[in-house]
Amino acid sequence: MGTILMIVYNQIQYDARVIRAAEALADTGLEIKVISCNSDLQYENGKFESIVFTSRMKHQWVLVYFWWQCLKYVLKHKRDISLLYVHDYYMPLIGGLYYIFTKRKWVYDAHELIFYHAKDKVSCRNKFFLCLEKLFIKSASLVVAANEERRKLMSYVYKLKKTIYILNVASVKRDKVNLSSKRNVIVYQGYLSSERGVDFFINNHLQIDEKYTLKLIGGGPQLEHYKERVNKLKLENRIVFTGLLNQKCLYEESQNSKIGIITYPLNDLNNYYCSPNKIFEYAKMKIPMIVTKQPFLMALIRKYHMGEVLDMEKGENEYKKIIDKIDSNYSYYIERMDDFLNDYSADRELEKLKVAILDILE
Question: What is residue 175's DSSP assignment?
């Protein structure tokens, strides 16, 4: 049946969505290859072949070089590629050019929702990538969105005929969690930025019971600034930074935490309609959650009582109240997590992807 070639402008060892998709399609018996950018050359996965294009260029020139290498590769190997599957908004250019030159099928997995309201202030960078998406998306044989709300919006705006959604449901094993092993740790996973509320949690940690440590897992250009801020507040013993972690280490660093933070800004459609895999990961690790006011997150938290919704505008007292409330009623927040996980199965989500891809290949 040939090869499915995936391309992602990212380091493969950190991209759980790409890894899940590649592994799931490999389980159907298809040969999968994944091209990524500047990934760990030691990374191996028994289910797919990892191909890494490396570049020492800086800024946008890394992407331009990556585009050029990918285009050369797909055109050179076109006879061996049964289906090109590109990830995220950097890559519709390659999918579209591949179709123009070969008339062969390609799939676009839209990790993000990049269009915006007319009143929104948008950078030239975002406008550029939106232009590329608009230009090429209709030639894709299938567009995959990260949730139903995004799928509906993309279908309507771009007038797409063939779309599905695959939730970011983590494929973490559901081992029995020993609650006695939980430590007084509040864990945050993700990009470290003021938009994500990292300033808020650092500045207000002084108000939280001293037994709690705040663990910040992730990276970003503001990492050193946050370390300096923690030193200035004399919180070095209560706030720790791990840096970026691969999926295995991420699970190991998080599993014994007592409370998990999931925060996103509400300033654009992409973040408003997000459905992060962290909610599934925390549930599998029996970690009650503090979430921001995205519709998807609020609906699940309120339906399954797995945590509390935080309104940062209400300030430090609101945050402290939520921490104290979860701490005092811990068993209440974890008792329905298994119901949630039964309703949202990683296997069920990935089965939709397998069926859709096999249908294209017939």
Answer: P
